[in-house]
Write a structure and sequence with these properties.
135 residues, alpha/beta, two-stranded antiparallel ribbon, 7 strands, 34% helix, Biopolymer transporter ExbD
């Protein structure tokens, strides 16, 4: 089970990085601190929160895995973004939380992690919560 989690986290990390190649940095840019840019919402946004007991909320409403999968397939066609968070992120994730991440990966969706159920922050690549600009 732990190897599956590591595989999913690695896949999610690659998705967060955008899998984009960039030109070689200049010497000045190479010495500058690196910051992770938030995922830009070019299309629609779907907000997913998974509670500790495995209950899933999609855009503030209870949802099952089938509904999430259907919405993610639509979101992919619309070039949308998933805002994702879950209760107790330091604890072992509920099976439903893992399945939601699998659906994100299966649909090749960009994801922005949040530590707050109101999605008022984003979690950067170092795991630090940063306030989001007001939309």
């Amino acid at each position: 089970m732990r190897s599956v989690i590591l595989l999913l986290v690695s896949s999610l990390g690659m998705g967060l990085a955008g899998c984009q190649q960039e030109a070689a940095p200049t010497e000045e840019a190479a010495s500058a601190p690196q910051q992770t840019a938030p995922v830009a919402a070019e299309g629609p946004v779907v907000k997913i929160w998974v509670f500790e007991d495995g209950t899933i909320e999609m855009d503030g409403e209870p949802a099952g895995l089938e509904a999430v999968g259907t919405r993610f397939a639509e979101l992919q066609k619309q070039q949308g973004v998933v805002y994702y968070g879950r209760d107790a992120p330091a604890a072992e994730p509920h099976e439903n939380a893992m399945r939601v991440i699998e659906l994100v990966v299966e649909n090749n969706l960009p994801v922005q992690l949040s530590s707050k159920p109101d999605f008022s922050d984003r979690v950067d690549a170092e795991g630090t919560s940063r306030p989001k600009p007001v939309e």
